[in-house]
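The protein record passed on below.

***
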Amino acid sequence: MHLRLIAGAIVLAGLAAALSATAQTNVYRWVDKDGKVHFSDTPPPEEAKSVSQKRMGGGYTEESQLPYATQMAMKRNPVTLYTASGCGAPCERGRDLLSGRGVPFAEKNAGSNATDREALVKLAGNAEVPLLMVGENRVRGYDEDQWNSALDGAGYPRTRLPSQAPTRPQDAAASPGAAASEAAPPSGSAPAQ
């Protein structure tokens, strides 16, 4: 009799978990052409303005919230990636590694921004990109093992959470260049252009 109660409780707990997982949904908010505000669980039409999306229900963390370990690492050792449009594969692989680990980072384009180029030369002594800054730690060129070691030492988690969106550069003005298809120099770095 006692085992039957335990089995029943386990089945009920499983059903409750399944139902709460299916209760998770996205809610969209947008303004139509007439200025009316709409809320819906379906994506808005193309002409919608001021679109925002929130994940609701299911007890999951919103995508905008970072794990505690990442928040602490960010405060102690912020990450900055110096790139340039001619950097190609090394910069692209660097961005992918940071994004895959869920590491928030600022991207500085030393090729198109004179201030960022001066900062890069001051930090590294030259204008070779990529340069990864993890707090005060500098890593020149792209070497996956060195980048992972620097991020591990700063306390960043090895992987992002399943519910965590891949990170993108925090500085929208420094979006990645289109030269990802160019051949990379053998050293894993290139001069900022």
Summary: The longest helix spans residues 2-22. Residues 25-60 form one domain.
